[in-house]
Amino acid sequence: MLPLFEHWPALESGLPILNLATLPTPIAPMTELGADLDVEGLYIKRDDFTGEAYGGNKVRKLDFLLGKAKAEGIKTVLTFGAAGSNHALATAIYTQAHDLHCISILVPQHNAHSVRRNLLRGHVAGAELHHCVSKGKATLCTANAFRREFMKQGCFPMVIPPGGSAPLGVVGYVNAALELKAQVEAGEMPEPDVVYVASGTMGTCIGLLLGFALAGMKTRVVGVAVTTAPYTEMKKGHKLYQQCLDLMRVCDPTIPDIPFPQDRFSLPYDFLGEDYALYTEAGCAAVKAIKEKEGVPLEGTYTGKALSGLLAHAQSGALAGQQVLFWDTYNSKDVSPEIEGIDYHDLPRGFHQYFEEEVQELDRQ
Ligand SMILES: Cc1ncc(COP(=O)(O)O)c(C=O)c1O
Q1: How far is the CA of 297 from the centre of ligand 1 (A)?
Q2: Within-domain flag for 125
Q3: Which of 158, 180, 240, 290 is the most exposed place for a label (fewest CB within 10 A)?
């Protein structure tokens, strides 16, 4: 049973899940990297292992979001992201597994090998992929999809916002914080002073912050920004925190209404670089370092940038004597067997550019 439901059994009937995630995810010490940085207590939470079909941070959110869709008899979900969105891919894979249709409205992004892989894998999963080059086109495409689905199914699709960061999706990371607490109590690591995690649409970092507050933990959260406003900004973090807490309190009013713990939360933008999904030298160096020292695969859009924040803070001496946890949010399940032999020409025309144009410079091997 999820630690969330052990703490507050009333949530179990109010918030149905599909048990998509393989939990708890492991915690491991990063001894070599820690020694290099002079951080004695450096650990990693392996959320790359959240799912057999596909891992990463989206699985915990989709457990609740798709749980609601199935409980309400929804037939189609509609979601949004950048062309290579891990969230759109995870949604495609898990909707297919649960007999739901998935429509993804995708917008342009800097090219990378992962964009190609994700597009092909999403296509194999049967998702309806739309490439929309402007906000106006995305709005029109969404309206058309609503109309089509209503004509076909007699009901509208369920909308999942970018990154799955609806208040209901965020509950998945409240549970993750309680899971960590149980692992701390079982002696897997000391209570962390600080957690470093990428902030894209904020669902992950805010869920953890709320979960730690509810669990009575002192752990601070550093949400290393990999996007800018309106996706990552303090104001949005406050709103999402309260909306998620309110949602839980509707199901169980005994859950305390704890105010946003501002002193335990920060959102550094220093590691984002020039743009979302444009790799940085520091991010790539971080990806290389953790691969060489600990054998952990990360990537340049989210986790490499988040780790580069942790490394910079450690190098400045700010983490001396602290217990530090890096929360790995990237999928590490290899999707190449599923996409072998798939021709990108089978994708809608707008996506062909990602296969015909060069990937960004820092992603060329
Ligand atoms: C690998 C990875 N890490 C981190 C994030 C950011 O998580 P969130 O959108 O919950 O802030 C995302 C999603 O956008 C992601 O795909």
Answers
A1: 15
A2: yes
A3: 158
